[in-house]
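Title: Comparing notes on inverse folding

I've been comparing how different people in this forum approach sequence design from structure. To keep things fair, I'm posting one structure and asking everyone to reply with a full sequence. Here's the target:
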């Protein structure tokens, strides 16, 4: 299991230069409430700039989402209905990219899906705050309740 666990308020506040300097080259982003609000099809311009910057540095970018398939307004490989925190679908799809786990980063807003997913993969995880807690899938709202309890315990 990876010991790399970081926190940021949002994706735009992540120190991507530091991650690149540490040898990170594969970035797995959650979509809903990490990149944009739940069910959106739009990737905001500031996120597009981050994606383009990372690609210019030789990094691979993927979206790994438990959400339903949708047409995004930016071309990026996506694994929809990824079943996070389980890893088998992502491993089956991105096998070669995950070979050197020291180069992989998972970025997401939920402890019980994204963070556990990254931990189960044995990669670095950056936990961000959700963009909008008011518009979420019912199951996510339930998990947020347990996240609040866990945060108080920690």
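Reply #1:
Here's my take.
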């Amino acid at each position: 299991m990876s010991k790399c666990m970081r926190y940021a308020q949002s994706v735009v506040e992540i120190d991507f230069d530091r991650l690149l300097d540490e040898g990170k080259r594969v970035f797995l982003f959650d979509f809903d409430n990490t990149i944009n609000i739940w069910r959106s099809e739009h990737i905001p311009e500031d996120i597009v700039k981050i994606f383009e910057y990372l690609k210019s540095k030789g990094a691979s970018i993927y979206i790994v989402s438990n959400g339903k398939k949708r047409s995004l307004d930016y071309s990026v490989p996506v694994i929809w209905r990824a079943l996070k925190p389980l890893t088998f679908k992502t491993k089956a799809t991105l096998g070669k990219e995950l070979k050197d786990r020291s180069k992989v980063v998972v970025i997401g807003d939920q402890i019980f899906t994204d963070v556990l997913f990254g931990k189960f993969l044995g990669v670095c995880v950056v936990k961000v705050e959700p963009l909008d807690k008011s518009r979420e899938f019912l199951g996510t709202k339930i998990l947020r309740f347990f996240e609040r309890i866990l945060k108080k315990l920690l």
